[in-house]
Design brief:
This protein is mainly α and about 190 residues long. It has helices at about 1-10, 15-40, 40-60, 70-85, 105-110, 115-130, 135-145, 150-160, 165-185. It folds into 2 domains: about 1-90, Orthogonal Bundle (Rna Polymerase Sigma Factor, Chain: A), CATH 1.10.1740.10; about 95-185, Orthogonal Bundle (Arc Repressor Mutant, subunit A), CATH 1.10.10.
Length: about 190
Amino acid sequence: MHNAEDAIRRFLEGDQEAFTQLVREWEGRAYNLALRFLGNREDAQDVVQDTFVSVFKSLPSLMDPNSFPTWLYRITLNHCRMRWRSRTDDVSLDAPISGEDDESIGSLRADSGNADCGDRLATVDLIRKALTGLSEEHRSAIILKEYLGLSLEEVSIVMNCPLSTAKSRLYHGLRGVQRNLQRLGVR
């Protein structure tokens, strides 16, 4: 975290290269959130670009550099929600998921001759479909907690809600994933 605080301070003092350092350090995490939320690589890349444009414009208003990670995740999540809402077609649990070529899946595909690899790909696809069928709030809580490893307190900060609401969204989201997986034939 020290690097982010230092880069923020230097950027605010006029060092433009410090912002580039921030982007390099944090774009992967923002991309991971966007990809998991949207399920589409191109949309995730666009969201990351929009996020860092917003960060560049708003960084002078960040009161506490220690809060940069949750602040960045909140901005990313807001851009994800805007992108999600702008989609004209609703995604069905039966529809194929696009953008399945993120790094983890791409590395699994490299060994597609392996039966275990095919099983893992099928599992990843089912989980993505189950997540896609959730509300934005439930999907966000699961991604922030389970995929990005944030604490429940951090999830509540990113989602701008009380801790009890974050816990409830996570609980109901996980139940929704379970129901969606059952509808997809997973027992």
